[in-house]
Amino acid sequence: MSHREVLTALSGLLMGMLVAILSSTVVSTSLPRIVSDLNGSQTSYTWVITATLLATTVSTPLWGKFSDLTNRKVLLQVALVLFVLASVAAGFSQNTATLITFRVFQGLGAGGLTALVQVVMSDIISPRERGRYMGYLGAVMSVGTIGGPLLGGVLTDSIGWRWNFFVGVPVGIAALIVIQKTLHLPAKPKKAVVVDYWGAGLIAGGVSLLLVWVSLGGKQFEWNSTASWLMGVGAAVLLVLAVIVEFRTKEPIIPLTLFKNRTFTFAVIASLSVGVAMFGTSVFLGQYMQLARGQSPTMAGILTLPMVLGLLISSMVAGALISKYGKWKPYMIVGSVLLAAGLFLMSTIEYDTNFFVVSVFMAMMGLGIGMVMQNLVLVVQNSVDVSVVGAASSSVAFFRSLGGTIGVSVMGAVLGTKVSGYITDDLTSAGVDPSALGGGSVSSIPDLSTLPGPIRTIVESAYGQGVADVFLIAAPLAIITIVFVCLLPNVELGTKSGIQRAAAASSDDEGGAAPVDGNDASPAVKGAAATAGLAPAVSSGPATAGAPTSPVDAGVMTGTGATTDAGAGNRAGSDAVAGAEAEAAGRHHAHTTTRTGTIDTIIATGAAEVAGHPVSDDELAESPVFSSLVEEKDVAADR
What we know:
Blueprint: H1 3-25, H2 31-37, H3 42-69, H4 72-91, H5 96-124, H6 127-158, H7 163-166, H8 168-182, H9 197-216, H10 226-248, H11 262-292, H12 297-302, H13 305-325, H14 329-346, H15 355-383, H16 389-429, H17 453-487, H18 498-509, H19 523-533, H20 572-586, H21 591-606, H22 617-621, H23 624-638
């Protein structure tokens, strides 16, 4: 596919990903007003976001696994329809319970979009070229993740917070239409689909119970209480049972054999802390700007632009450089270091910290996330078998969302506890009754505009310090990302798209020669495979005047122009037959031309999978298979 064709097919996917990200972030700057209008508490504040993240997290591996079994395009459209309907319903909510319920369904749709967009990209774009397109995807995610709060603030201040939920509907409908018209994927071979219902149920139940326990612990029940123990132990039991089922079932939701792959395992661990940084910071930055800096929802979104721009620039630039040079690891290491540094620096802010300083810290976080987030998925897709690329991609997204969901829950609980404690202590020290805040509880979201000056300063200071504490929790997790990014095997990016790899694997299954995988084979193996693909024409008899004496079927190459067939090495079975049929037609070529063209073609096909880095004669000469051919080529060149 040309660049233009890829962009056309990708346009609907990017719109779908945009609405999925917007569903999680567009309400973040508006939540203080939304929760206040619906008479909610700090717990409601956290759950409006956590509900979506929870549903996204639980459903992501299910969508990914189904994409390996059934039609990916149809699944993508189902996810979009579910998201659009849930968004409309959420916009008409009259209380926080109803809002949270429909946010769950939004999360289910968003989980499908999050998993499937990246899987479909792997179908139509090779890993080597996918870098820059991942950059586009990262840019869209950055706009949705950090730009969503800005959009939400503008809508809330202008036409009302309910449009936070309606705004994604037209984009979702447009994405549905574009995907239908522009995305064309080959049909999957028909086979019996085995759905791992037990695994799906146990994973969903265990993860949900774990997240509910983390979210409510310390607020609605004590950590050392019967309810807490039942939920914690129950989550552990369900997840252990899920592991047992996944080991035994034929089509596991999360194939545990993937963890034998070092790249997959290290990427999963690294993605956990990236999820905390991405989701947690976008949520609590909105609270910092409004409740510590006294800004409106619109201004709160505008003030987070340094992080948006950092993420946008780094994802685009890093993606383009990865595609150009084929090197991905240096950019990910630099990004993880920037992310850790930004989080540590953000833990030092207060309610009156100079905003230029805060902007620099936010920009560092954005630069770091942009270099790491999407490239973790890229390196995993490059290292796993094409038959499980859906499950592998969605698993990375699953653990990233899991980290984000747990992070938001834990950080929300810490923020609520810290802020409540700071406000109570400061008001008591000033001789003021904490109930003076209104609502009779310091755990409620305050309306700063109604507070007297001295009390407002106390509240702003408490939220400033509380948000800094939240970043201090996230900072050590970024160190984990640095460690495991450094440990990732520096595997060269392949040059085949998922469709091409699947076709090669299908050809192999039908009895052809084993295809040379651009991700797994060394140059020497690729060269040998290329020779093997032409082996049927090898002759042990003496050369004749009309036939080539080179141990290669001259019929495969009709002159030197045949050197452009870079894929011959992978079509061993079919090309052997075609070569035999074409041999007679090729015998009229001059002897020297045929021999030289044949050798050139061997070199070209031997280098076919080396992603634009041809194997030199010196490298080929190290192999006994090619050494005599190289000598013959040199002699022919001298003549």
